[in-house]
Inverse folding.
């Protein structure tokens, strides 16, 4: 079998981290083609490589295609990502920003290529990755497989074939010098998704030093009948609760066969690029992506956003609405039942919101009176603060201690932007 290999053409040469107080500077020197689209991903915010207002910048250093990418960001316990996209081939480098300051030289930088078989008529598709330096079967690299399909000819959804039960697809892997996955697709699966079905394949390889690992991913059209120009918007999850002043990215994606460029609208009107801090627009053989990022989510950013594009017949198509709201948010990771003895109760509830945020709570066995409430406020930014509320009360001996078994708390937080209510077990 003659295989056609797809080359991302990307290699990281050096990676460094330098800490200045609570700030961090990341530097990545990479070899990549001129056509590459490069972004940083910090939490859920996507930053274009030259978005200086968001701390990013680039400089061309040598004639052999090396470019130095820099990002100034805050110290964080979370991973940050350096992403390079070349057509349908993407490489994501996972950076350990919480680790010690260091500079790593990759003297033999890794590059990888991908390929697919074309045995669609036999309901079997194979995905391959080969790398330089060569993969070692004994190392801890792994593959991941998923599908992107459309059930009702409206929106596309991603389905993991490794972690979600799917009776119609079987995946097997071969761990050798060339990574290989074999995906068997039944007729029922093709009938379920009609003629719109794409295979998503990735390879994750551990790295040394500042970069913990790199993930290469690629998409392949495995539809039986390929209609030119056909595309679907991806169904993205709703945005998480947002506080005033926090960075924000609105991400629009479409998958298909040479999908069109996507525009972003706000409240059914064209969205001016002048209001965006960082804008990313990329169109490849299978993907179209438009990302609008803001350095600070302020009052005027609130609204209902949509992704729009013209289909091959000139008809305007739109995604589901993406609503941007500013409102307080609870911190379940910081809230807790501090004390839950037979006669003594202590519950801590933590909420973040605009300055002056307040919270009211009750529980399934809380008394209607006699609850001691104490608060502690800490400033988070010029816009927001964190409110910690301690609820303490005594339970007389002999009362049914229902709270001890079902510690459910219902709380409503209110600030100048709106309110949020949660009910959950702490």
């Amino acid at each position: 079998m003659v295989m056609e290999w797809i080359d991302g053409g990307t290699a990281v040469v050096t990676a460094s981290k330098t800490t200045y107080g609570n700030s961090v500077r990341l530097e990545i020197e990479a070899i990549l083609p001129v056509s590459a689209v490069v972004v940083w991903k910090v939490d859920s915010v996507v930053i274009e490589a030259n978005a200086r207002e968001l701390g990013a910048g680039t400089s061309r250093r040598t004639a052999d295609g090396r470019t130095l990418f820099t990002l100034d960001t805050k110290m964080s316990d979370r991973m940050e990502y350096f992403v390079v996209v070349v057509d349908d081939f993407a490489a994501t480098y996972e950076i350990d920003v919480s680790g010690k300051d260091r500079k790593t030289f990759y003297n033999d930088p890794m590059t990888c290529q991908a390929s697919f078989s074309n045995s669609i008529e036999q309901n079997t598709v194979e995905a391959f990755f080969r790398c330089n330096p060569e993969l070692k079967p004994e190392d801890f690299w792994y593959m991941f497989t998923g599908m992107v399909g459309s059930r009702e000819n409206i929106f596309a959804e991603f389905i993991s074939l490794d972690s979600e039960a799917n009776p119609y697809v079987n995946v097997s892997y071969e761990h050798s010098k060339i990574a290989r996955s074999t995906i068997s697709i039944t007729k029922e699966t093709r009938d379920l998704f009609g003629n719109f079905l794409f295979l998503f394949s990735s390879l994750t390889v551990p790295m040394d030093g500042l970069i913990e690992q790199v993930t290469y991913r690629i998409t392949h059209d495995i539809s039986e009948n390929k209609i030119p120009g056909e595309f679907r918007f991806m169904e993205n999850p709703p945005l998480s609760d947002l506080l005033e002043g926090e960075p924000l990215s609105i991400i629009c994606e479409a998958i298909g066969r040479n999908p069109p460029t996507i525009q972003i609208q706000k409240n059914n009107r064209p969205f001016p690029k002048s209001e965006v801090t960082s804008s990313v627009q990329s169109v490849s053989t299978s993907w179209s992506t438009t990302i609008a990022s803001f350095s600070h989510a302020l009052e005027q950013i609130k609204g209902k956003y949509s992704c729009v594009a013209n289909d091959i017949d000139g008809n305007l198509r739109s995604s589901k609405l993406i609503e941007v709201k500013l409102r307080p948010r609870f911190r379940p990771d910081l809230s807790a039942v501090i004390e839950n003895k037979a006669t003594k109760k202590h519950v801590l509830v933590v909420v973040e919101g605009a300055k002056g945020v307040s919270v009211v709570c009750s529980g399934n066995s809380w008394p209607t009176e006699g609850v001691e409430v104490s608060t502690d406020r800490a400033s988070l930014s010029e816009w927001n603060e964190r409110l910690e509320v301690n609820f303490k009360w005594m339970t007389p001996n002999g009362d049914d201690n229902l709270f001890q078994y079902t510690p459910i708390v219902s709380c409503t937080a209110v600030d100048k932007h709106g309110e949020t209510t949660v009910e959950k077990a702490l």
Remarks:
- DSSP finds one helix and 35 strands in the chain.
- The longest strand covers residues 211-221.
- The CA atoms of residues 43 and 71 lie 14 Å apart.
